[in-house]
Write a structure and sequence with these properties.
The protein has 217 residues and is α/β, with parallel strands linked by helices. Helices cover 55% and strands 17% of the residues. The site of SN-glycerol-3-phosphate has 11 residues, from helix 7.
């Protein structure tokens, strides 16, 4: 399973990159605003800085909601850097844009996916990634991980190549459950990624090893 970090914070992106386990980055307009990145030019510059900080795919979301607007904006984003993946919302115009970019060989990430039907449409349109939002489903008493399992089953039935990118991952158990469910990628905050490191028995064991070593030296 690939690990993407879901943030526009460069320090956190670099920290995950330094761990050696990072495969890419996802962003969205809310994550940009959270870092105080506003204004078109500033946002574009920030995407380039993110691409330069990591080796993998970097999702950059379009703001337009009409086909022509998405195409214009997506082409400009894709031209920014070879690592850019154009992030398109799961709406009717978005499906058309996914097909357009797929035909042109430009990578896409279909975002705001909450049902198997939406994921099926994204795959039919040739999306590179589909992003089911598992945390937001859990927020409304619906099983987000079940959606990952459903999409995995559907995609495997027909050998769709679209990668399942589990998004809105909030904590370590989401990551583990995504791995069980067969997500191709998970994108989450740094806290969820580094949370995987933690186990009290590791800390206790290491403390004892070091103490015993010191006894003999
Ligand atoms: O990857 C999508 C993500 O940014 C949404 O996460 O926590 O706002 O539901 P969240």
């Amino acid at each position: 399973m690939k690990f993407f970090i879901d943030t526009a914070n460069l320090d956190q992106i670099k920290e995950a990159q330094d761990l050696g386990i990072l495969d890419g980055v996802t962003t969205n307009p809310s994550l940009m605003a959270k870092e105080g990145i506003t204004g078109h030019e500033h946002i574009l510059k920030h995407y380039v800085s993110i691409c330069e900080a990591v080796e993998g795919d970097v999702s950059a979301e379009v703001i337009a909601v009409d086909f022509e607007g998405m195409v214009k904006e997506g082409e400009a984003l894709a031209a920014l850097h070879p690592q850019i993946v154009v992030k398109i919302p799961m709406i009717k115009e978005g499906v058309k844009a996914l097909k357009y970019f797929s035909d042109k060989g430009i990578k896409t990430n279909c975002t705001l996916v909450f049902s198997p039907g939406q994921a099926l449409l994204a795959a039919k349109a040739g999306a590179t990634y589909v992003s089911p939002f598992i945390g937001r489903l859990d927020d409304v008493s619906t099983d987000g991980i079940q959606l990952i399992e459903d999409i995995r089953n559907i995609y495997d039935n027909y050998a769709f190549e679209t990668e399942i990118l589990a998004a809105s991952v909030r904590h370590t158990m989401h990551i583990i459950s995504c791995a069980h469910a067969g997500a191709d990628v998970m994108t989450g905050p740094l806290s969820a990624i580094t949370g995987l490191l933690k186990h009290p028995l590791t800390d206790i064991g290491l403390e004892k090893f070091l103490a015993d070593y010191k006894k003999g030296n």
